[in-house]
Prior knowledge:
The complex is a heterodimer of chains A (280) and B (330).
Chain A: H1 3-41, H2 47-51, H3 64-95, H4 100-114, H5 117-132, H6 137-162, H7 165-173, H8 178-206, H9 210-213, H10 233-241, H11 246-279
Helix pairs in contact in A: 1-11, 3-6, 3-8, 3-10, 4-6, 5-6, 6-8, 7-8, 8-11, 10-11
Chain B: H1 2-66, H2 69-72, E1 76-77, E2 82-83, H3 86-117, H4 120-135, H5 138-155, H6 157-165, H7 171-174, H8 184-208, H9 212-220, H10 225-254, H11 257-262, H12 280-287, H13 294-329
Antiparallel strand pairs in B: 1-2
Amino acid sequence: MNPLYAARRRRNKIAMGLSFAATAFGLGWLVLILGVLIYEGFSGLTLQVFTEMTPPPGSNGGLLNAIVGSLIMTTLAILIGTPIGIMAGTYMAEYGRHDRLTSVVRFINDILLSAPSIVIGLFIYEVMVVPMGHFSGLAGSVALAVIVIPVVVRTTEDMLLLVPNSLREAASSLGMPRAYVIRRVCYRAAQAGMVTGVLLAFARISGETAPLLFTALNNQFWSANLNAPMPSLPVVIFQFALSPYKDWQALAWTGALIITFTVLALSIIARVLSAPSKQS
Amino acid sequence: MTDFALQGGAVRAHDAPSRAKVLARLRLGDAVFRSLTRAAALGVLVLLGGVICALIIGAAPAFREFGFNFFVEQRWNPVTERFGALAPIYGTIVTSFIAMIIAVPIGLLIAVFLTELCPQFLRRPIGTAIELLAGIPSIIYGIWGLFVFAPFLQQTLQPFLISTFGNVPLLSSLFAGPPYGIGVLTASLILAIMVLPFITSISRDVFEAVPPVLKEAAYGVGCTTWEVVRYVVIPYTRVGVIGGVMLGLGRALGETMAVTFVIGNAHKISSSLIAPGTTISATIANEFTEAVGDLYTSSLIALGLILFIITFFVLAAARYMLLRIERRIG
């Protein structure tokens, strides 16, 4: 074989081997992280975790108040963020498709989408916690809602842009006003994708810790009062994992297992939902 | 017949005012809906403006007190209330830089695997699995890094680096000091794993958008797979790949929880990569709730402002590049 050709084939083999190795490396981390999580967290996964409050160090307890706090705050965040996000996405895809405003909003929205979440926490601290004078679950929810909005805006706009124009024209030709066309025809056509966006946003915020640290703070006790500091699963994990107590660390692992599998399940459901609509 | 027509006409005549009313109501509803959506779109802009304004107002006392010195001062002393941002800024940039050095080649190689080598039926599952790495919340990377990864590095990689490079001039200072496990290098490695999926998924998307004709032409003249990737795919998608890399960089710069767990939170600049350090986001996460005094709080918000400005420009550049490739690929 001619030596140049042999060298090229060798180089190709090395490069392809490396790319195979890189993929194995990436998948390896996923397996490793999930494996450790299950190994460390599964033994602590008892009914107690879901029925008892976070304990003081040295005694038994569960994560009930943290789980409930997380649920309240993420739900409220979705309720605040989704309508705003859908409205903004609707304007961009329906009314102002070729506006200058739309391209500016899209650019800014994409930046908000990847903005550091801790900065969002600082922002809400400045505009809500300081004027109110105390930390609160409400501030935590608003901080999470700020993270929800860009995700929902993005998916709503993308999904509405996929709706064929002939549907809009057909509805308009029957004399439907624009607002009806959008709500009765376009939303229905884009439904699956928009739900996916909300699910993705839900998955994203249920693991967020940084924006809650100094908005909702934490609470050792049961609290459903939105006007008071509220516990949340990620913040409790943060506090417990960095503590020197073994039983707190064990609870942190269990909480980590719960969060991870919730988030991964949500994102897989979102993918499954959006997959068929993409192909057709 | 006439009766019927008359009746119909009567109904129509009777309906005329209500028809106008209905039309007016619909028109009003339309206008209201339109302005609501427009307000929401403007709200997104207000949100960004609000973030910037709130941070500037919050940071003002610190900047008034320290002026430009805030950027070049290394000391961070809550007791004497002297604050300088140099150590966190340095830590943020160094950890992100090392993370990118590791993650970019690996991320690109995975994208090459997914687009060129992988059998068709495995592409979706493997791609999804890599993207799930991005779905794992950052606090999980933190707890895993602290309890599993850091002790592992302390026993294996770090002693190896110290003994290998200990006698090499220059490199010895990079790996000086005892192996703590936690530190700048550990944080960088975890960041690398976290940004990997961002780089992979964007590179895969742009690689897939290369017109098959270009690749087939290259294969047709006898190129190997590697040569097609190296001389056709990558040059064609360069802007998009750089955009993806910048997007990953934006993530790495702002990443908080994972880094907070493993960096060690030491406010000093050390030439050694295995020494503890700190980043902007880790400093804020660690100290904000404990900060007493307006100047301390304000200095932390000023750090947040610096972080936001850095990431803003990195992300803006990323989006600009991705927009350019989108336009070209159409």
